Amino acid sequence: MIHLNVVREGNGPIVVLSHALGCDLHMWDGVAEQLARAHTVLRYDHRNHGRSEVVAGPFTLQTLADDAAALIAREAGGEPVHFVGLSMGGMTAQALAPKHPELLRSVVIANSSAHYADPAPWRARVDTVQAQGVAAIAAGAVARWLTPEFVSTPEGAQAARQLTDTLVATDAAGYIESCKAVAAIDFREGNRAIAVPTLVIAGARDEATPPAMSEAMAQAIPGARLAAIDAAHLSAVERPVEFSQMLVDFWRSL
Q1: DSSP calls for 168-222
Q2: What is the C-alpha R_g of the chain?
Q3: Which position among 31, 83, 91, 166 has the lowest Cβ density within 10 Å, counted as fewest Cβ atoms?
């Protein structure tokens, strides 16, 4: 079993927050602050990210789902959790839900995708990181993650700096394997087997995973709800209060 860095806050129903590629659990700082007022919030660093273990060699998104399942079994004491994933975290949710429904009260899939028809951009990113390091792709990534209007504010500028620092500090080999795992996803059939309540959140200004990707996931998952938020790719960073309220409203309706 690999070591995953976990932070626990608050009291109440358990919520697990799963972050995006190249980020760490601090991506959720604003959301965790909101949710911890009435929930137990568990957020963690994926393998090869943050303070979690860097594991050599290839893996798949199912591996990340198995990591999450082991974490939930260990940290939640047998209580089903609300699992919230954004981008790569949302892919983790899609892999987790059909295989481990007994661990889940609900899933939220934000700013994510079920499949990439063209893996070429991912190959190009891998090639760049192999040749020049993670720093070479940092500016372009953060520009996709946040809207210019948000970055022009003091809060947004600070968020952009923190995200950049986190991405640049990510282990290059681990990041490359993560990119390869993301590029290979195909949850289009598996999503039809998700039987837990599901909310899909689209970023209206998300260029990395455009709203059409969220719409396709919501159509495939039985009974899934679709919501939109006026943000770019890291909607939970850009609009943490609104994002958190979407979650709470969804959970209250179950």
Answers
A1: HHS-HHHHHHHHHHHHT-B-TTGGGG--S-EEEEEETT-SSS-HHHHHHHHHHST
A2: 17
A3: 166
Q: State the CATH architecture for 6-117+185-252.
A: 3-Layer(aba) Sandwich (3.40)
Q: Full-prediction pTM beyond 0.70?
A: yes
